[in-house]
Design brief:
Strand order of the largest sheet: 9-8-10-11-7-12-13-14-15
CATH architecture of the largest domain: 3-Layer(aba) Sandwich
Helix content: 25-40%
CATH superfamily of the largest domain: P-loop containing nucleotide triphosphate hydrolases
Number of strands: 15
Oligomer: single chain
Order of helices and strands: HHHHEEEHEEEHHEHEEHEHEHHEEEEH
Radius of gyration: 25 Å
Number of helices: 13
CATH class of the largest domain: Alpha Beta
CATH topology of the largest domain: Rossmann fold
Largest sheet: 9 strands, mixed
Number of domains: 3
Length: 410
């Protein structure tokens, strides 16, 4: 059992021994910690097991993320929510609970905030209190500082599996069935433009990674993200682009819009935008309409139909166009919308696979090809499956031009 006061004493003692002008390696820090822990009189009567615990805790506090490090390394923890120094929650198996740990001082939490931001070369302070970053393992981080956050710094860490998820894994988990999974893989390979929608925590980024496995390996792919999360493992000719914040003088910012525009000059076969949230939707739709078949992106929405409305609104932020012109661009740019959801039992499912069939001059026509049917609406546990609606794919030109036959639906 670690005594917090003793740990703090040891930490302060260690810091005084470090040469501030020297960049120490992990091995050097471990050596100094070991000398401190095993030789200091304060821990003379502590068991070897507890001494090793102190050693690990000290190393994490100096070189890693302090008390958050073990949560980051815990494969069952999917989300870490820090609401101030002494109010920390975690998510495991879809359920949120207190972590029962706390930072020794608010200053230590502030140090961890700056450490996380520096990993992604980001800047966060009172004048710029909101930032998105990522950890070395690819976990996504959002930071909000006072005075915006009233009860102290807020850190939200969304972890991703260390193992590369595949369509087979989703089928095993019951998130999608074999027929629908094969259907989507065929569409990706054939060059259909696919948009993945869903709410927070529904698995959009993971699903986008899985779909990317079906991209032919000879394609040149450009990925564009606010904070790099996508991991395309089967593409050799890949360019990964990430936005950049403005510097202290307020200049040098590189936005998603900037990256989409420059990507068009990089000879891409396919462009993958991690997520569209605003005016960059206009540039994304333009890219989809300029010969980059097989491009993909994600966005937040409550349904596939709602995603169309949100895209219209986001495009209006970046382009002063008549609504019918916007709808026409969406209808010709996006072929398929895959909507994901997180259900009442915390399971993640593909809820709908819909085709944008055409634009009739007033409305975009959306046809559901597969839709999730819940067979137990009154039960806490979801018992349902993705079922074929009877609507077959209408726009089959890309499919046949790529050498594929009519897909199976049942």
């Amino acid at each position: 059992m670690i005594d917090k006061e003793l740990l703090q004493l040891m930490h302060n003692s260690l810091i005084s021994k470090f040469e501030l002008s020297k960049e120490l390696t992990d091995a050097e820090i471990e050596r100094i910690i070991e000398e401190e822990v095993f030789n200091q009189g304060l821990v003379r009567y502590i068991s070897i097991t507890d001494r090793l615990s102190y050693k690990k805790a000290l190393f994490n506090s100096i070189r890693r993320l302090d008390i958050l490090q073990e949560l980051v390394e815990d494969e069952e923890t999917t989300e870490i929510m820090v609401n101030g120094a002494d109010n920390i929650f975690i998510e495991r198996n879809g359920h949120i609970s207190p972590a029962n740990i706390y930072f020794t001082t608010p200053a230590k939490l502030s140090d961890i905030v700056q450490q996380i931001a520096s990993i992604s070369n980001r800047r966060v302070n009172e004048s710029n209190p909101i930032v998105d970053a990522r950890l070395k393992d690819g976990s996504r981080v959002n930071i909000v500082l006072p005075p915006i956050a009233l009860d102290g710094p807020v850190i939200t860490i969304r972890k991703f599996s260390k193992y590369h998820m595949t369509m087979s894994n989703l089928i095993e988990l019951g998130s999608i069935n074999t027929i629908a999974g094969k259907f989507l893989e065929t569409l990706v390979a054939a060059g259909y433009n696919i948009f993945v929608s869903g709410g927070t925590g529904s698995g959009k980024t993971t699903f986008l990674n899985i779909l990317s496995d079906a991209i032919p390996p000879d394609c040149r792919v450009i990925t564009i993200e606010d904070s790099a999360e996508l991991k395309l493992t089967n593409i050799r000719n890949i360019v990964r682009l990430e936005t950049r914040m403005a510097n202290i003088e307020g200049s040098g910012e590189i936005t998603i819009r900037d990256l989409i525009r420059t990507s068009l000059r990089m000879r891409p076969d396919r462009i993958i935008v991690g997520e569209v949230r605003g005016a960059e939707a206009s540039d994304m739709i333009t890219a989809l309409n300029t010969g980059h078949s097989g491009s993909m992106s994600t966005g937040h929405a409550n349904s596939a139909k709602d995603m169309l409305s949100r895209l219209e609104t986001m495009i209006l932020m970046g382009a002063n166009l008549p609504i019918n012109a916007i709808r026409s661009q969406i209808a010709t740019g996006i072929d398929i919308i895959v909507h994901l959801g997180r259900l009442r039992d915390k399971s993640r499912k593909v809820l709908e696979i819909a085709e944008i069939s055409d634009f009739d001059g007033t409305y975009i026509n959306l046809r559901s090809i597969f839709k999730f049917v819940d067979n137990s609406p009154n039960s806490k546990t979801v018992d349902g499956c993705l079922e074929f609606t009877g609507n077959k794919l209408i726009n089959t030109d890309k499919l046949f031009m790529a050498g594929y036959s009519e897909p199976n639906y049942t």
